[in-house]
Write a structure and sequence with these properties.
This protein is α+β, with helices and mostly antiparallel strands. It has a single domain, classed as Alpha-Beta Plaits. It is built from 5 helices and 5 strands; from the N terminus they run βαββαβαβαα. Strands 4-1-3-2-5 form a 5-stranded mixed β-sheet, with helices on both faces. β2 and β3 form a beta hairpin. α1 runs antiparallel to α2 and α4 crosses α5. It is globular.
């Protein structure tokens, strides 16, 4: 079983903070996806252990991002029926994308597109 969480912030631009997030992703063996650059900043975290997701989210909270919103609290990942390769399930580390479109495509690949869209406020289903 996988666990995940979703965080929205004003923006993610500080390389020092991103470095701290990468170190936390490595320390807690989490897959992390960041939408960096302009507004909005979006962070997705996923791991096989809920306590690792919680620990990573606590790291983000301590960094005091502007307009920090935990829009989807750490919990079991919903299965939306997409095929997931074993590579997707076992690729911890931090990745960055520049656009919401790229972020959404990766959420679809991970099988959590509808969950992500609800968390972002794009749909209310």
């Amino acid at each position: 079983m996988l666990f995940n969480a979703l965080i929205r912030t004003h923006h993610i631009t500080s390389r020092k903070k991103i470095s701290a997030l990468k170190k936390a992703a490595d320390a807690y063996n989490c897959y992390v996806l960041l939408r960096t650059g302009s507004s909005p900043g979006v962070m997705y975290v996923e791991s096989g252990r809920e306590e690792d997701v919680n620990a990573w989210v606590n790291t983000v909270h301590k960094l005091r991002y502007k307009d920090y919103q935990l829009v989807a609290k750490p919990g079991p990942q919903s299965d939306e029926g997409y095929a997931k390769s074993s590579a997707i399930l076992t690729d911890p580390g931090l990745r960055e994308v520049d656009t919401i479109k790229e972020f959404g495509a990766l959420m679809k690949d991970r099988g959590v597109l509808d969950w992500w869209r609800r968390g972002m406020g794009y749909t209310h289903r």
